[in-house]
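Need a sequence for this fold. Nothing fancy.
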């Protein structure tokens, strides 16, 4: 398959994580593995405030895996709408609040949308204090809480 266009290459399936992939880094072609790339997480910083609604299906969050939440302004509640599970098969998203959150006065509600559920419920998950976190995963039908800390 030498000199083939990328679009003409066969699709890789059932990746194990140790496969070599090509990376262009600083103008030099190098190799890495899928696992090295998966372990490289750049957080998305998101400043939230009372009355705000953030749709995580927006293109700004299309590749966000870790979202660090900062609170700004007066006390209250804001909403983080999860993207649709069907459009995010096998996606993992992590959320963590930083020191700007005050217990009980700053609330970020992680909310399933469009008939989706979060752990079998349409109810929200509330992040309401500093250093609180949750990790969710989509199987393409619904979102699951796979880890949380409070």
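Here you go.
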């Amino acid at each position: 398959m030498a000199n083939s266009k990328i679009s003409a290459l066969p699709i890789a399936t059932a990746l194990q994580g140790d496969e070599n992939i090509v990376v262009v880094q600083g103008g030099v072609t190098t190799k890495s593995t899928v696992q090295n790339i998966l372990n490289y997480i750049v957080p998305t910083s998101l400043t939230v405030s009372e009355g705000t609604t953030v749709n995580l299906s927006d293109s700004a969050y299309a590749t966000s895996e870790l979202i660090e939440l900062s609170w700004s302004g007066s006390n209250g509640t804001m909403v983080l709408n999860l993207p649709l599970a069907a459009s995010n098969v096998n996606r993992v998203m992590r959320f963590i609040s930083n020191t700007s959150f005050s217990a009980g006065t700053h609330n970020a509600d992680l909310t399933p949308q469009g008939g989706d559920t979060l752990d079998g419920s349409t109810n929200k998950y509330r992040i309401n204090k500093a250093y609180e976190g949750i990790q969710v995963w989509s199987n393409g039908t619904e979102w699951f809480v796979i880890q949380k800390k409070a």
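For context: The CA atoms of residues 75 and 105 lie 5 Å apart.
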